[in-house]
User: Which sequence fits this backbone?
């Protein structure tokens, strides 16, 4: 077998060596004036904060660890070695909705479970997204009866992944579609995205913190859940 | 499993213990023995079978025999774990007075199962300590496993139906 060696960097070896030396001088603070300007210009990229934030969000989803039914098996499979969603940066499944920004509804949602799912979605912090995975929570699939409710009826859904259940590749494709959506569109809350204004559960004045009590609402005593005064 | 003769012997003993009307009928079908009883006699029948070795209430089922009358049925599957024997106790109640004495005080395992039968079929178990819905939301109306209950669900448009004009969205 023939082994070919490739030159590192652009141009000939001399230029590469010069760049290496420049970097060393930069670190020791010897690089000055025009040389320093050139050095910095070669390494900087400008963007807007919003774009950078969206780029980071779109490339680092933290899905909630939340399985509903058989689709959850396929959802687990996207984290394993064969599919390995860590390639795209989505591998950190979070066990708390407060730390998650993507809710994958994997399976059928009964009418008794629907308020729970909605509450978990409400507990997630903006910006947040939701994927309806599988036939049951998109169009009810084989469980089209009195007990099941489609996800669109009680919460905003960004991506529907069809299948019964969908292959893990299909779910990954759905997540990548969501990433493309986030990268393309400016980041908005779901109420703005889907015209859900006026559906807030609480009015602003009720949420105001009582200045006398000093504490925020509903937290009594100390402990890890308590807030500092 | 008691055979057909064994079933008749059990039924005969039951009649001897609790009177001639203790057993409404017997059925031996596909190797499975069943005793039909009146709803009011469920607890004494189960106690009798417990004495006979059927000391494990495996499950409680609800049924809807629509359009037959009386419509609703409850079945108790009894298991003798020593002799590996099974026997079914069956009863029927009309839909306008679906009252059955609860077996829960004697058989704690019947608690959740009777709640499920109540949830799905609307059979009311008198004497149950906590008779409320177990699977459906507590404010749910109707009993969804009754056969005259609408199946429900959402209309779904399939692409094959769009061509024939069955588009529900129109």
Assistant:
């Amino acid at each position: 077998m023939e082994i070919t060696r490739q030159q590192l960097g652009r141009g000939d070896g001399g230029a590469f060596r010069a760049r290496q030396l420049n970097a060393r001088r930069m670190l020791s603070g010897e690089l000055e004036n025009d040389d320093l300007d050139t050095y910095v210009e070669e390494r900087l990229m400008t963007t807007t904060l919003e774009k950078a934030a969206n780029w980071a969000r779109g490339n680092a989803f933290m899905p909630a660890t939340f399985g509903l039914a058989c689709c959850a098996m396929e959802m687990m499979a996207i984290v394993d070695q064969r599919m390995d969603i860590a390639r795209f940066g989505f591998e950190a499944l979070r066990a708390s909705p407060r730390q998650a920004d993507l809710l994958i509804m994997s399976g059928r949602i009964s009418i008794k479970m629907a308020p729970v799912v909605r509450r978990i979605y409400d507990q997630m912090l903006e910006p947040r997204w939701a994927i309806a995975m599988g036939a049951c929570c998109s169009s009810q699939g084989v469980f089209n009866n009195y007990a099941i409710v489609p996800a669109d009826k009680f919460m905003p859904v960004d991506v529907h992944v069809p299948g019964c259940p969908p292959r893990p590749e299909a779910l990954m494709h759905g997540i990548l579609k969501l990433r493309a959506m986030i990268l393309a569109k400016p980041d908005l809350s779901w109420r703005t995205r889907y015209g859900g204004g006026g559906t807030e559960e609480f009015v602003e004045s009720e949420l105001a913190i009582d200045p006398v009590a000093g504490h925020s609402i509903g937290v009594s005593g100390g402990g890890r859940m308590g807030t500092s005064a | 499993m008691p055979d057909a003769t064994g079933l008749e012997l059990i039924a005969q003993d039951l009649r001897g213990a609790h009177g001639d009307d203790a057993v409404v009928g017997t059925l031996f079908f596909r190797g499975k023995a069943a005793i039909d009883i009146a709803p009011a006699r469920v607890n004494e029948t189960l106690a009798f079978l417990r004495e006979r070795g059927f000391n494990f209430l495996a499950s409680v089922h609800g049924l809807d025999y629509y359009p037959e009358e009386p419509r609703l049925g409850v079945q108790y599957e009894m298991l003798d774990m020593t002799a590996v024997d099974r026997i079914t106790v069956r009863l029927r109640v009309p839909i306008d007075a679906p009252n059955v004495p609860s077996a829960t005080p004697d058989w704690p395992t019947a608690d959740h199962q009777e709640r499920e039968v109540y949830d799905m079929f609307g059979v009311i178990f008198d004497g149950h300590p906590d008779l409320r819905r177990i699977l459906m939301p507590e404010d749910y109306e109707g009993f969804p496993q009754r056969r005259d209950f609408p199946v429900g669900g959402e209309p779904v448009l399939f692409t094959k139906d769009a061509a024939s004009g069955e588009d529900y969205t129109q």
